């Protein structure tokens, strides 16, 4: 990470079946300082290559010629270590967005996004933030609230979080980024990340998307 700019280069994989688009995205990432460790034109190749390339972030299109981008997302999110998936799709349909998120996508961006917006989304996804094209965040939040109305496991079995972990979790549920949480609680960005990672471990969750869902289920976003 550069002390002057705060930029952290990431290892990124690009998955898209259109060669020109795939090459363009890879070029934008490389020019921004990221390391493009792999590219793939179909889902099965992406899953196979990711195991060796070990990207931190995968930029994945939903429409692939073999298995879907949702299935690729499910495989990558369940990997060890898990890959943070930023879906980059032409579709803004509710069903597509929610299926991607349920599969473990960290973010969902439309292909109409500007270059700067895309690069910002990659950086934020790499930091563990949930990133969505404006207008889609409310859709995802609404789905979380609907799911939260369903019966959940007994609170007696819930892991015990520290007061600070609960405080950070509450702000995560409200949609704040790690940087915003750090500023509000007068903590370093790294300390906030550590609290989130500890919370994920205690709750046996895999990513920030699942963490937000858990927090909303517990009503922490209303406090």
From TrEMBL:
Q: Which Pfam families match?
A: GerE (PF00196), Response_reg (PF00072)
Mind listing the GO biological process terms from this record? phosphorelay signal transduction system; regulation of DNA-templated transcription
Keyword match Phosphoprotein: yes
Record's CDD domains? LuxR_C_like, REC_NarL-like
Q: Which residues carry this modification: 4-aspartylphosphate?
A: 61
Name the source's superkingdom. Bacteria
Task: Give the molecular function GO annotations.
Answer: DNA binding
State the UniProt keywords alphabetically.
DNA-binding, Phosphoprotein
Phosphoprotein: is it a keyword of this entry? yes
Provide the Response regulatory domain boundaries: 11-126
User: Where is the HTH luxR-type domain positioned along the sequence?
Assistant: 154-219
Q: Which Gene3D superfamilies match?
A: 3.40.50.2300, Winged helix-like DNA-binding domain superfamily/Winged helix DNA-binding domain (1.10.10.10)
Q: What is this protein called in UniProt?
A: Transcriptional regulatory protein DegU
Specify the species.
Answer: Actinomadura macrotermitis
């Amino acid at each position: 990470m550069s002390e002057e700019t705060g930029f952290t280069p990431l290892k990124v994989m690009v998955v898209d079946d259109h060669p020109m688009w795939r090459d363009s995205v890879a070029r934008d990432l490389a020019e921004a300082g990221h390391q493009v460790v792999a590219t793939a034109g179909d889902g099965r190749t992406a899953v196979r290559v990711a195991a060796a390339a070990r990207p931190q972030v995968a930029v994945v299109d939903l429409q692939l010629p073999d298995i879907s981008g949702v299935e690729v997302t499910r495989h990558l999110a369940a990997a060890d270590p898990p890959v943070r998936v930023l879906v980059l799709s032409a579709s803004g349909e509710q069903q597509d967005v929610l299926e991607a998120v349920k599969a473990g996508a960290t973010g969902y961006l439309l292909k109409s996004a500007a270059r700067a917006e895309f690069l910002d989304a990659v950086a934020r996804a790499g930091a563990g933030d949930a990133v969505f094209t404006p207008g889609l965040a409310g859709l995802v939040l609404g789905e979380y609230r609907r799911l939260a109305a369903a019966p959940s496991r007994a609170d007696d079995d819930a892991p015990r979080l520290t007061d600070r972990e609960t405080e950070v979790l509450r702000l995560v549920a409200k949609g704040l980024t790690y940087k915003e949480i750090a500023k509000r609680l007068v903590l370093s960005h790294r300390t906030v990340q550590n609290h989130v990672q500890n919370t994920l471990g205690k709750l046996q969750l895999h990513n920030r998307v699942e963490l937000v869902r858990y927090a909303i289920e517990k009503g922490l976003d209303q406090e």
